[in-house]
Specification:
Length: about 400
């Protein structure tokens, strides 16, 4: 691999990273070849078909289509978006009380094949809901909330749009940081202290922009809708008490399989920053995060691994004893810690607080029309990826802080 070769300069060329958009898929397709019309007819109507309890019957009647007419990467990505969102809707149509044991053949077989070809798991991921699920209303217009639209959606209306598109804007805000990573790596290799310091300054600015973009979550997403309505459609069939055995993919394998649900823990961004800055995760938090790498675009996972193989930036900063470099490194770790701290606030607003309200309503055992009371109870203490949330997130945040150099911490 050219970029992993220590003699050639490190570049992002072979990792499916866009200069302008980072890990976001540039210009996702909006349509599949006409042969796949039946998939798209259902996928584009997911919210209304779930609402009328008809999605499962539509999927059951779907013909078994061959995936062989999908050729280009972007065709496969759109097929994965459509099939994965259909699968989530199929499993969770009736809530946590009436799930299914088996995904029918007409969905399971092509979903499996497309997943194999992309190197994705056969479940909905961050790469589906966020990275490949957008279009600009005006193609020449700006990349902002007013001009962006989702391709495929799940129940939850405007909050679904807000949730996926704000996350997309966080990914966009990180693009300059990704562009700076090769400069850091090449600067460490050649001993160019100034270049490394400048690139780290760019990265910490980009981290601040990510936090600012994340702040839009509270503008565009309603916590009760997120918690009570849409979150179940992101959840998977691993470590999930309401699907203890996982899911059978009919026509693929007779034994059930277990996969975690969609989560931005599957975004490659923070994994790259952790490896670059020398942030070390341990125990359960490390194993969860490492497992999430299997839910990424394989080229992005490879980038994370290749960054981890480079000479240590942290040791370089220590050895150089350069004030500007020390400061720039310190800023990066501090901004990454702050991003994770702000994310914990977001999680308490969107999960902990509504979960407490739902428990309170249940304890009063009154029937309530409040949206939060519709939320699944099995997910109360868990993230959609299956983790026990706040403890996990605080551990990961504190491990970030530990990467500060002793004299600056
Ligand atoms: C309403 C908005 C959000 C909620 C409720 C939320 C919730 C969660 C939860 C529960 C976890 C624990 C892991 C799991 O089980 O899935 C998690 C992890 C994570 N989330 Fe979010 N999240 C939100 C938005 C975002 C956004 C926009 C990003 C940025 C791309 C993000 C990045 C992460 C990362 C990187 C992790 C892994 C832990 C870490 O590395 O610090 N989240 N999130």
């Amino acid at each position: 691999m050219a970029s992993a070769d220590s003699k050639a300069p490190f570049s992002l060329d072979s990792y499916y990273v866009s200069e302008e958009l980072g890990f976001i898929l540039p210009e996702p397709l909006e349509e599949l070849p006409p042969y796949y019309q039946e998939w798209m007819d259902i996928a584009l109507r997911i919210p209304e078909l779930v609402q009328s309890h008809e999605l499962r019957s539509h999927v059951n009647k779907m013909p078994l289509l061959s995936s062989e007419f999908l050729q280009k990467h972007r065709e496969l990505r759109l097929a994965h978006v459509a099939l994965s969102m259909m699968a989530m809707a199929y499993v969770w149509q009736e809530g946590e009380k009436d799930t299914v044991e088996m995904l029918p053949r007409s969905l399971a077989v092509p979903f499996w094949e497309v997943s194999q070809r992309l190197g994705f798991p056969p479940i909905f991921t961050h790469a589906d809901g966020v990275l490949a699920n957008w279009k600009k209303k005006d193609p020449k217009g700006p990349f902002d909330m007013d001009n962006l639209e989702l391709l495929v959606s799940i129940p939850g209306g405007e909050s679904v749009r807000g949730f996926f598109l704000v996350t997309l804007l966080v990914e966009l805000a990180a693009a300059p940081a990704l562009r700076n990573i090769p400069t850091v790596i090449n600067g460490v290799r050649s001993g160019d202290t100034e270049a490394v310091a400048r690139a780290l300054e760019g990265i910490s600015q980009s981290m601040q922009d990510m936090t600012d973009a994340l702040k839009l979550m509270q503008v565009y997403v309603e916590p009760a809708v997120f918690y009570g309505k849409m979150r179940i459609y992101l959840s998977g069939w691993r470590d999930n008490p309401c699907m203890p055995n996982g899911l059978i993919y009919e026509g693929v394998q007779t034994e059930p399989m277990e996969y975690s649900g969609g989560s931005a823990a599957q975004s490659s961004l923070l994994h790259c920053f952790d490896e670059l800055l020398g942030v070390k995760h341990e125990g359960n938090s490390a194993s969860f995060l490492i497992r999430m790498r299997n839910y990424m675009v394989p080229a992005h996972k490879r980038l994370i691994q290749d960054i981890s193989l480079q000479p240590s930036l942290r040791s370089f900063v220590e050895q150089q004893a350069c004030e500007r470099l020390n400061q720039a490194f310190h800023q990066c770790v501090t901004k990454l810690t702050a991003l994770r701290s702000y994310h914990i606030n977001v999680v308490s607003r969107f999960i902990t607080v509504p979960a407490a309200r739902a428990r309170q309503l249940r304890n009063q055992s009154q029937s309530s029309s409040e949206m939060v009371s519709e939320a699944p109870t099995a997910l109360e203490e868990r993230g959609t990826g299956g983790s026990s949330i706040i403890t996990f997130l605080k551990t990961v945040r504190d491990e970030t802080k530990d990467a500060l150099l002793p004299e600056t911490s």
